[in-house]
Amino acid sequence: MEQENTERENILVVDDDEGLLHLLKMRLSAMGFSVTSCTTGQEAVGEAKKTMFNLAITDLRLRGEDGLDVTEELMRSHPGLPVIILTAHGSIPNAVEAMQRGAFGYLTKPFDDKEFKATIEKALSQQRMSREIDRLKSLVKELYGLENVVARSPAMQRLFQQIGQVADSDATILLFGETGTGKEVMARVIHTNSRRSKGPFVALNCAAIPETLFESELFGHVKGAFTSAHGAKRGLFQMANGGTLFLDEIGEMPLSMQVKLLRAVQEREIREVGSETSMKVDVRIIAATNRDLSEAVKNGTFRNDLYYRISVVPLFIPPLRDRRDDVPLLAQHFLKLSMKRSNKEIKGFTPAALHRLMMNPWPGNVRELENVVEKAVVMSQQDTLTPDLFPTVSVVTESPLKPLTEAKEEFERTYLKSVLQLTGGNISRAAQFAGRYRADFYKMLRKYGLHPSTTKGKLDPEVDELENEEHLTEAER
Ligand SMILES: Nc1ncnc2c1ncn2[C@@H]1O[C@H](COP(=O)(O)OP(=O)(O)OP(=O)(O)O)[C@@H](O)[C@H]1O
Ligand SMILES: [Mg+2]
Q1: What is the pLDDT of residue 90?
Q2: What does the alpha-carbon distance between residue 367 and residue 182 come to, in Å, rounded to a whole number?
Q3: 211, 350 in Cβ contact below 8 A?
Q4: Angle between the 326-342 and 365-379 helix axes, to the nearest 10 degrees?
């Protein structure tokens, strides 16, 4: 586990022996920790209310106080805080009691340096680990809590409306959409918003599982069902009992497996490999595919009966290019997540960078956008993300659609050039042709920095550009 070097870990030390307390403080500071020392338990509990500690070390016998009570008090106010007990020789039973009450470990005085360091390191690494787990948990929660699923576009709003209508029923759902559109995210959203949300969400990638293992993975097996079945094993259907089973990439499943799955889906009943009896399971099924399954049915690669079973409620997740309004929000969302992961502080995207992202066709959809933003965050040397950080994203001029003003200006410029060429640079005729007054026509030429005289007799479509107005003679003005 990575240690954050930017902040020093805080250690709280409690001992009524001031000499020893001083010694401990010196040792721990030398090890690079930030140390707060207290001579009484009460003082320590007070400190713990002000500061987040990573570790507490306390003597078991404090003047007038019970070190065990102090330990418990500290752990109550800081759940997950490891506490190391210091004991004198002969008080091992007390130390054992402290461990039973949840202390991390103990050190018997006098302790040697090596043992001291090892115990502290162990306690801290456990604490780092549990902090990391908490962080990941909150990340996962954030990721699948509705508030962190971006869906502003009308297309996604419609999808969410549909999800809202079916989430709470037990109806089987088929999610279809291109790769990276968020099928798994939506499956989790449905689960989280169903009455099964407290039950498990079990995902199976049907494309990634070898045919020979398919049945035992899905339905489990009894001990000795086949040569390598040394023990019994629960299948995914059992694991998902009371919750949701997500069958991802169901279109990739071989026909022979489809028959077996059909039975389970139809009857909500499974039979473990090697077992004589079948058992009921209470599982909601959500399947996902990026293939057109009705086409697969026609081709004979997907069973018709299974298709009808799983497509009770078909939900389509639109590709990202059809919901460009989601791009800026998704980009911000992924920026936030990437910043957390990389410990980098970035303010946001420049308008040009966002524009470039919005215009990209995104064949890899949301996942591709996520990767592109993550990479940009890693590569970035400034506190904003600029267009050059998105080199793989197609350049704006290549995209079929441009902002209206830009498209209009480009058209006008080309038009003016053509008219000038047509009239050999004769302003009166050109203005007449364009249906404008001469003065207006000049204004337009100036706007685009075009010079009328240079086009005379030229057939080359490139018209020389005007540096500044002085090139126009008074008469031409
Ligand atoms: N609406 C959304 N809001 C926030 N994040 C999203 C959204 N949609 C997708 N993502 C993110 O994009 C990535 C791809 O999503 P997901 O894995 O659900 O797509 P998929 O359709 O299952 O892709 P594949 O077909 O490749 O399996 C994930 O990291 C997911 O968190
Ligand atoms: Mg997926």
Answers
A1: 65
A2: 8
A3: no
A4: 50
Q: What is the CATH number of domain 10-133?
A: 3.40.50.2300
Closest among 368, 290, 380 to 327, alpha carbons compared:
368
CATH topology of domain 165-222+233-317: Rossmann fold (3.40.50)
Protein residue whose Cα sits closest to atom 9 of ligand 1: 182
316 CA to centre of ligand 2 in angstroms: 14
Q: Do domains 10-133 and 165-222+233-317 have the same CATH topology?
A: yes
Q: Would you kindly state where each structural domain of the chain is located, as residue ranges?
A: 10-133, 165-222+233-317, 321-398, 404-471
Percent of residues in the chain assigned helix, strand, coil, to nearest 5: 50, 15, 35
pLDDT of residue 84: 92
Q: Mean pLDDT, consecutive 10-residue segments, the chain of 477 residues?
A: 58 92 93 93 89 90 84 84 83 76 84 88 84 62 64 85 86 95 93 89 90 89 80 90 95 91 92 91 96 92 95 93 90 93 90 88 94 93 92 57 77 83 83 86 87 52 36 40
The tokens 């500071």 sit on which residue?
29
Q: Which residues surround ligand 2, an ion (CB under 5 A)?
A: 184
Task: Answer yes or no: is the C-beta of 180 below 6 A from any ligand 1 atom.
Answer: yes
- 180 and 316 Cβ atoms separated by less than 8 Å: no
Cα–Cα distance between 233 and 272 in angstroms, integer?
A: 9
Q: Determine the distance separating the centroid of ligand 1 and the alpha carbon of 179, expressed in angstroms.
A: 8
Fold (CATH) for 321-398: Helicase, Ruva Protein; domain 3 (1.10.8)
317 CA closest ligand 1 atom index: 21
Please give the structure tokens belonging to residue 292. 């057109």
- Cα of 248 from ligand 2 centre, angstroms: 6
- Most ligand 1 atoms within 8 A of CB, residue of 141, 152, 184 to mutate: 184
Ligand 1 nearest atom to the CA of residue 288, by list position: 22
Residue closest via CA to ligand 1's atom 8 equals: 182
